[in-house]
Write a structure and sequence with these properties.
Distance between the termini of chain B: 40 Å
Number of helices of chain B: 19
CATH superfamily of the largest domain in chain A: Adenosylhomocysteinase-like
Distance between the termini of chain A: 46 Å
Radius of gyration of chain B: 23 Å
Number of strands of chain B: 15
Oligomer: heterodimer
Number of helices of chain A: 17
Strand content of chain B: 5-15%
Helix content of chain A: 40-55%
Chain lengths: ~400, ~475
Amino acid sequence: MPVLRSVRDRFAREQPLKGIRIGACLHVTTETANLVQALIEGGAEVVLCAANPLSTQDGTAAALVERTGATVLAAHGESVESYRAHIEVVSSSAPQITMDDGADIAAAVHLAGAETLKRVLGGTEETNTGAMRLRAMESDGKLAFPVIAVNEARAADLFDTRYGTGQSTLDGIVRATHILLAGQVVVVIGFGRCGRGIALRARGAGARVVVCEVDPLRGLEAAMEGYEVLPSLAAAAIGDVFITATGSSRVLTGHHFEVMGDGAILANAGHFDVEIDLDAISSVASSHRTVRPLVEQYLRPDGTRLNLLAEGRLVNLAAAEGHPAAVMDLFFAAQALATEHLVRHASEMAPEVHGMPPEIDRHIAALELGALGVEIDTLTDDQVAYRHGWE
Amino acid sequence: MTTTTVLAPSDYKVADLSLAAFGRKEIGLAEHEMPGLMSVREEYAATQPLAGARIMGSLHMTIQTAVLIETLVALGADVRWCSCNIFSTQDHAAAAVAVGPNGTPEDPQGVPVFAWKGETLEEYWWCTERALVWPGEGPNMILDDGGDATMLVHKGSEFESAGAVPDPAKAESEEFKVFLGLLERSLAEHPGRWTQIGAGILGVTEETTTGVHRLYEMAQAGTLLFPAINVNDSVTKSKFDNLYGCRHSLVDGINRAVDVMLAGKVCVVAGYGDVGKGSAASLRAQGARVVVTEIDPICALQALMEGYDVKRLEDVVEIADVFITTTGNKDIIMASDMAKMKHQAIVGNIGHFDNELDMAGLAKVDGIQRINIKPQVDQWVFPDGKAIIVLSEGRLLNLGNATGHPSFVMSNSFTNQTIAQVELFTKNNEYEKQVYVLPKHLDEKVARLHLDALGAKLTELRPDQAAYIGVAVEGPYKADQYRY
């Protein structure tokens, strides 16, 4: 993770986060460990819990504690109660910066009382779903501190959502089920930044991809890319593999489960496990059993089967290892630099959801190019003048 | 070494000789893109293996073919040429070939060529006959694409032996009627001509799947008059020209014909052979959603593995926007299918002959109207007002509506042709009246000749590695049955 490493080296020299406690709720993976290390070398204290009960890599969690002195509260397969309790612990540790993947800590500190809330300088948010939550808080007039939506950093977003999610979602599905993707009808519900990455990679694997959308702009884009665009109920009748990537709730529900073919595979790539309606799938089925780790097979009364992966939780982290390091490198560099920016400038920033400062965004991209050994051009003074001129 | 011929004024026919200068410039550009042919010229400059060869060629008269023709001449051959399709000639190429590198339009010194874009059927067969009937000694080699020249010689001989030509009025197609009419006249005016020509032919080299099919039929029936080399089934031909050539030129033809946005369109590709694979890829690359039709389960499964939907024509005829036939078979899309298509559906063929689309049936639909939009683009309006757009009258649209495959891939095909001509001419006594394929080491040679131009660095087998897999260090590297 060369980009993060270069940020870490500077942090170690300059200590921009000295005296800052960071309350973090992230997926505890090897890549995250690198971010935590960078923050600690920058002078911060880190209290970390898991953003998802199934995404923790236990070995990583243990190593983090040992090597960096971070406080880590996370275990693979922990119960929902444990997951929630850990969020409470992090929130009550009185962090000055919240670092979230799904806005759990940010939400928790707002509910924890004035004492805790007033200590928070600002927060960072890693995922689209979290940013949506925070924007909802902002419209309600409830957001008390500035939050930088790191997921909107263009450098990170391109890699993370489109290419990272594309690869790692299919990776999760293949590791869980061992199916051949070539020739399968793969229905991608949602053609946003994640969905289009998933569609692209599924097509690359030889699948016939069908896209479902509610947004006419996105639906049109999918059609122009040569995907078949169908209403979800029509897609349900022909699909072999269903992947939700909407950030919405209950996009696959009872009506869909009733018409799906025998052996249909259901996976979710969105942040929360609300996209596949778990109550509906239980009611449609007469029984269920675990056929492979992370594959729950639901038997319909007529004897046909639906296979749910990873309990409907984000399949790339639950059934695989999340994004490859190269993708997370950019993402976590963005997290670290956003944190530094907040420590310096939070007092001047309105309590809103902010995008990534563009100069930091470009800086990250430039670091990545350096790591790839790619050289690009710079504008001449004339060209700069031309861009700003109008006569 | 070079034969400076002054062409007799009657011994060529092209659209416009003054186009020769433009043609010569494009030939120059094409030579840069055809390393295989240029390398063969160099290799054989001294030995002139085609000295004494009198080659009749029936092959699309394009800029790329001009480079082939001048390669054959450079190797010592005398050549006469016609096109193998009424729409595929590039007039400036034909002019440049007639004028030759050293001639002028006033004083053409090139090769007798009979070809122009937009021939009638009568003109087409007239050109073929002129290319086959030489002043002085007749041709001793044929270089064919689709087998029309070969068929003329064979049928001519057959009817001369029988003493009569079947009644043209009873012919199964307009074209065959014209063909029989020509033979009727030639039997009357020049008895024994075709038998004599046939007797002088040492062999034919055939370019395309459809022509090869005809040759195998004749070989099996025992009616083949001379040995044939199936150039199509050189790997460096069919797995390149048919596949990557079509991948390039199908969309080129459609764009130049109708300029329609392909992204988001549903396109049916009938057939998933080499041409179908290239055609499907061509359309998918532009963002079209491609549906494949197939009769062969292996090809169908290949299409599925590539993520294409495989359906029957009747399942998609009412919803698709574009229909392209690639099968080498006949009657793929009938007039009754076309009647069911969407308004402004686009219909085209990229197979060698025009019998894949039922053009005759379409013309006979009660009340149908044909409106010409521009050369090789026709709108056919049904009585209910619904129209379809047909490209190149059902003839191969990449050549009819564009300029066929680009030079680089044609260099592959034509280097094979040249090597095949040399082989068949110089070692004629080693061949019987059968159909042969070039040996693999020549196939690999053709591939080698094209690597440098693309900046490739080939790895060399070490002797122990070669021994390990049982091949020679210099190849051939694969068993004959290997499929690539």
